[in-house]
Specification:
- The complex is a heterotrimer.
- In chain A, 85% of the residues lie in helices and 0% in strands.
- Chain A is built from 8 helices and no strands.
- Chain A is flat.
- In chain B, a hairpin with a 2-residue loop joins strand 4 and strand 5.
- By secondary structure, chain B is α/β, with parallel strands linked by helices.
- Chain B has a single domain, classed as Rossmann fold, CATH 3.40.50.
- In chain B, helix 5 crosses helix 7 and helix 7 packs parallel to helix 8.
- By secondary structure, chain C is mostly helical.
- Chain C has 2 domains: 136 residues, no CATH class; 218 residues, MetI-like (MetI-like fold, Orthogonal Bundle), CATH 1.10.3720.10.
- Helix content of chain C is 63%, strand content 5%.
- In chain C, helix 4 crosses helix 6, helix 10 runs parallel beside helix 13 and helix 12 crosses helix 13.
- In chain C, 36% of the residues are buried.
- At the A-B interface, helix 1, helix 2, helix 3 and helix 5 of A face helix 1, helix 9 and helix 11 of B.
């Protein structure tokens, strides 16, 4: 399925690998769901939903533990090599990133609960204005990531890596805007900090998506993105040299 | 909430299916099984042996086709591949052990330090003194431990006095990491040692004539894991002074001891490369299939 | 990755294996028991025949190791031995010792008179008695003039009678020993003047027409010289041939032909080798007839294929890993064979050779052809002296009618068998001792 379509001589190995992939994809589905719900809860000021997201994070953690166990078992029992080895390592790393994304969703909900705790007055809409597009961007990245993982689509993964810059820029400008608000009205600082935490969490989710995309590239191509970039650069430079001479 | 997960999963499953069919993205440079051109760099910077266009025939049957590979000085190179792939045949070409088989015919170029080893002026006796060999089954001579190691220096007339010979035997056993274990019983028969010790005795016997290259034909296939680990450690130490070529069935062993790895398949040299690259990111589909256990 | 549809379960898989096996179990065990009992019966039969043969031979041959002696009072009368009284050795040698024996016999039975009676009396002792007295005087001339009781060799008839092999109930005319002789022997036995002693003549004497004087020393020495020649020729040549064929010769049509011929030679009837020896060694090379040299040459021809075949088998049994080890060290082919293969194959080669030699020791047919069947009294002193060998001696004796030769034949067979067992035992010991494990 991954790179070679042929089955292993040991059928059980195939089954284990497929199970691990399914588990990771399932975990991806769960984190995606968590992120969506977190953003919705924040949007709709639905604290029950937010608490449920916080509660459900332990499901994500449980799946991470299970996936890690499976990886260790496969390495210990099958001594995978070549693409199998890359698959296991990529999936293991992906699982860590997914768990962090789950943590991010949880953090957003924590912040939401703090913001709408009912003691202080709710923040003005302009403070939260930047959250929605950043959240949408992060959610799209995660979705694309999981899609690329399912299809082992390198092109898509590379697009995700490039798109991360977009999210970073959004985060930077949102941060600047928030600083402006805070300087204008010092009473907003309390809420603004919470909002900073939220967009920071979303930005981190984007970084994790980028990591996952890099794992996918490594899994398929056997070289990490850094190497690939260097290679591309040197190729471009040599092309330039040739054109100059 | 569980329904959502299931939905997501099924959505992903549908997404997954076309990927399985496509598989267009891959690290492999060669996905065509019929392409038998050697993939990877066959040359090295400081070659000890240079082989080009080597063909081996057993009677009418061709056992090796157009093998070209460099063997780097002070390196360990591992030959891997399924049974009958020609890796042992090629190993035996390197010190002309195939000469003993009447029907065997070797063509092409095999050079040791720029000397053609199949040239008429080269004597096999001299060649085999320069290229030692360790075999699959430990095969000490049914003589004492001392005599086993002293045999090579004796027949080649390397030493003049008994004291010199003693020194050489002890040094060889020391290098093979066996001296401590046999110091007190040099006159016991070599066959009284354990399997792993016997194999190290064979290595000591081979290095007693101070060869430049040591060929090892599955040296650990008859040994338990502890003895195997000792031999592997020894191979790593020997690399400092000798060039080592090892044929092995165990990919893990090849990965552990070698710097370069060559994969043979049905008489063709399919891929050569740095060992870590071969085992994490092979370039040929056949290599990939073999190391990941998809063979056949 | 579509899974193949599972094959239909064969009908046989649905039956209960336990009951099926149980049903046939009794039959299988019965067949096994039956087969074992066949084997046991065959071995017992074989053993029985061996025991019968040995019992027969030993029962017949055992008495031959004992010989009857008669004690006769001899007076070494100087008048008979040395009439001139000058102790001339030549005269003493040629004296009439038979007269002394006769006088001694008469002294024991003074009552006997008449020519026929006396002759019968004198016939109680062997003609060897005369030489016995001569030998004693020769050794110790001081005996002249003294009187002594001397144990003299009894004649074969007396020996047979004493050993109880003559039927006394037969009519006098039908047996070789007469009534009066029986009477004298009984009398001598009653007075203890007849005694059975260990038969040294059997081992020290050459062949003779008189059974009591016949020995196997000549045949033994003949066999020794013949086998010596055989071993010296066939072992080195056989080993060299085996080594060359197995290790050095190219495998082609010629070596195949040679191999087939060697195998065939091993199966050629031995008499043919005798004819060959007669034609080549005696008629063409004019070597002496009946000589151990020719016998050894002929037996070498016969033993060679056996040694070559055993040698090649021993060489092939040396594991190839040892050869590879030696070649891998840079040993030349000759060094490989000389240092490693041959020492390991040597016990096997020696065993094969000894068994071949044992076969040669028991061989008689080819030696008949080259004249080693002659009646030879003298013990051979070298490889060119006429000689006979043990099996031929047995053959010769078995032809003779005297009862005393029957037991000597069996005794010779026992000696021959003892040597065979000895050689085969030696082969086993050599193998056990020098065989090296690898």
């Amino acid at each position: 399925m991954a790179i070679s379509q042929d089955a292993h001589t040991v059928k059980q190995f195939d089954l284990q690998l497929a199970n691990l992939r399914n588990l990771v994809l399932e975990m991806g589905g769960l984190t995606e769901d968590q992120l969506k719900r977190a953003v919705t809860a924040l949007d709709e000021e639905d604290m029950t939903a937010a608490r449920e997201v916080i509660f459900r994070d332990r499901l994500v953690n449980g799946m991470q533990a299970k996936a890690d166990d499976d990886c260790i078992n496969i390495i210990a029992l099958r001594q995978p090599l070549g693409s199998d080895l890359r698959m296991i390592m990529s999936l293991a790393n992906t699982v860590t990133d997914l768990e962090r994304i789950g943590d991010g969703a949880k953090k957003i909900c924590r912040m939401a609960v703090q913001i709408y705790d009912g003691v202080s007055s709710p923040p003005s809409a302009k403070l939260l204005r930047d959250v929605t597009p950043i959240a949408a961007l992060a959610a799209e990245m995660l979705h694309d990531c999981l899609d690329a993982l399912a299809r082992l689509d390198v092109e898509k993964a590379l697009t995700i890596i490039h798109n991360d810059d977009e999210l970073d820029q959004e985060f930077q400008s949102a941060l600047r805007r928030l600083i402006t608000y805070m300087m204008e009205d010092q009473r907003t600082i309390g809420h603004a900090i919470n909002v900073v935490f939220i967009i920071k969490a979303l930005e981190r989710i984007g970084d994790h998506c980028k990591n996952i995309a890099e794992h996918i590239v490594y899994l398929v191509e056997g070289k990490n993105v850094q190497q690939r970039r260097n290679l591309d650069m040197s190729l471009a430079m040599s092309a330039q040299d040739k054109s100059e001479t | 909430m569980s329904t959502t997960i299931i939905e997501t999963k099924s959505a992903l499953d549908t997404a997954l299916r076309p990927a399985a069919e496509a598989g267009k993205q891959s690290s492999l440079e060669v996905t065509d099984y019929d392409n038998r051109q050697t993939v990877g760099a066959i040359t090295v910077d400081h070659p000890k042996m240079v082989c080009r266009n080597v063909n081996v025939y057993y009677g009418a049957k061709q056992a090796l086709r157009n093998v070209g590979i460099d063997i780097g000085a002070n390196q360990v190179i591992a030959f891997i591949g399924p049974s009958g792939c020609g890796k042992s045949t090629f190993l035996r070409c390197l010190n002309r052990m195939n000469d003993t088989i009447v029907t065997c015919r070797v063509t092409g170029q095999l050079k040791l330090d720029d000397e053609d080893i199949y040239a008429p002026v080269i004597d096999v006796v001299q060649l085999r003194a320069r290229i030692g060999m360790v075999f699959q089954k430990p095969n000490p001579f049914p003589k004492s431990i001392y005599e086993n190691v002293a045999y090579g220096p004796r027949i080649h007339g390397m030493v003049n006095t008994k004291a010199e010979l003693d020194e050489l035997v002890r040094a060889s056993l020391e290098r093979a990491g066996l001296l401590k274990e046999v110091d007190k019983r040099m006159n016991d028969p070599g066959t009284s040692l354990s399997g792993g010790q016997q194999q190290r005795l064979c290595i000591a016997r081979a290095i007693a004539v101070n060869p430049e290259v040591i060929l090892m034909d599955e040296p650990c296939s008859a040994l338990d894991p502890i003895a195997t680990a000792k031999i592997e450690e020894l191979i790593d130490e020997l690399r400092e002074n000798y060039t080592i070529v090892i044929v092995t069935h165990s990919m893990q062993q090849a990965a552990r001891v070698s710097q370069r790895t060559a994969y043979f398949h049905l008489g063709d040299l399919i891929e050569v490369g740095e060992t870590d690259q071969i085992f994490t990111n092979p370039k040929h589909k056949l290599t990939e299939d073999y190391i990941t256990g998809r063979f056949g | 990755m579509n899974k193949p549809t599972p094959a239909a379960v064969p009908a046989a898989f649905n039956r209960d294996i336990k009951t099926i096996v149980n049903a046939g179990l009794q039959r299988r065990h019965a067949a096994e028991r039956r087969f074992r009992s066949y084997g046991l019966i065959a071995i017992s039969l074989g053993l029985l025949f061996v025991v019968l043969m040995f019992a027969n031979i030993i029962a017949k041959g055992y008495p031959a190791f004992w010989q009857t002696y008669v004690q006769v009072p001899i007076s070494f009368d100087p008048a008979v031995i040395d009439p001139q009284g000058i102790r001339d050795p030549a005269a003493i040698e040629s004296a009439d010792y038979a007269a002394l024996v006769r006088a001694g016999m008469r002294r024991m039975f003074p009552a006997v008179e008449g020519r026929t009676e006396l002759r019968a009396l004198y016939a109680l002792v062997s003609s060897d008695a005369t030489y016995e007295l001569q030998r004693r005087i020769h050794q110790n001339p001081a005996l002249i003039g003294s009187s002594q009781e001397i144990w003299l060799l009894a004649s074969a008839t007396v020996d047979t009678l004493v050993k109880g092999n003559i039927d006394r109930t037969l009519d006098e005319t039908e047996r070789s020993v007469k009534d009066n002789q029986i009477g004298w022997v009984d009398k001598l036995q009653a007075t203890g003047k007849i005694e059975k002693q260990f038969n040294t003549i059997l081992f020290s004497g050459g062949d003779s027409r008189e059974p009591e004087q016949a020995g196997i020393r000549g045949a033994l020495m003949g066999s020794f010289y013949t086998l010596l020649i055989t071993f010296l020729l066939s072992f080195p040549i056989g080993v060299a041939t085996a080594v060359y064929l197995e290790e050095f010769a190219p495998k082609n049509r010629w070596t195949d032909l040679i191999e087939v011929n060697i195998n065939n030679l091993a199966a050629v009837p031995s008499i043919v080798f005798g004819l060959l020896g007669l034609a080549v060694f005696i008629n063409f090379f004019s070597l002496p007839r009946s000589a151990p040299l020719v016998g050894g040459l002929v037996l070498s021809l016969m033993t060679l294929p056996v040694i070559i075949i055993a040698g090649r088998a021993a060489l092939t049994s040396v594991p190839p890993s040892i050869r590879e080890a030696a070649l891998g060290m840079g040993a030349s082919k000759l060094q490989m064979v000389g240092h490693h293969v041959l020492p390991l194959a040597m016990p096997g080669m020696l065993t094969g050779s000894i068994i071949g030699m044992a076969r040669a020791l028991g061989e008689s047919a080819p030696l008949l052809m080259i004249g080693m069947v002659a009646f030879i009294v003298d013990v051979p002193k070298g490889i060119m002296d006429p000689a006979t060998v043990l099996p031929v001696q047995i053959y010769l004796w078995s032809d003779l009618p005297e009862r005393a030769f029957v037991e000597r034949t069996s005794a010779a067979i026992m000696v021959l068998l003892a040597f065979m067992v000895l050689m085969n035992g030696l082969a086993i010991i050599l193998r056990k001792r020098f065989e090296r494990r690898w």
